[in-house]
Input
Amino acid sequence: MRCALWFLCWMMSPLMAAELPSSARAVQAEQRVRAELGARLSDLGASWGAPVYLRIFKESRELELWVQAGEGYQLFQTWPICTWSGQLGPKLRQGDWQAPEGFYAVAARQLNPNSRFHLSFNLGYPNAYDRAHGRTGDFLMVHGNCVSVGCYAMGDDAIEQIYTLVAAALAQGQALVPLHIFPFRMEGDWAAAYAKHEWLPFWRELEPAYRDFVAGGQPPRVRVQGKRYVVE
Output
């Protein structure tokens, strides 16, 4: 059965500003980083609160943030991931300490300005695909500090920048910030290196979204159909 859940990536028209959870910690973090971030956005031709798109690559331990500038998206920054737990491949069950892979989205309600790991936002796991496959777990985050039991830990300095940019985009009307998590960069004949890997069929489902963004420069729209990811 066709699932109507969309992993939306950007909004073309202004919307009512989202009501964001806040804390003194989040406010102070924004005060520390806003001047620098704002100047860098301006250099890219983007405004404060412009829509953003996140990509994570497990193998190389990188998180990218792309920002809408004009009609396309520009790479704002790539941060090293301090740590993530588990192996290459998706999360399967509660307590497996595995960091997820797949297509997720962050809404305003998923921000946690009072995290015990400085600042954080929930990935949105399990999504419709995960639930269709009977996968379990909750409270999977991108957060500060450098410890992980299934999350992506960025360190406090990096999460202040990432969290502030995500929060600004949501506050300015982006309904959902897409967060796409890949095992690695799917360039060249990557599948040959993993020909016998148990998760190769799953990774082939992720590849069209990876290639769609490379080709078109817009965050891909992904839905779940028949227990599979499908790029629109």
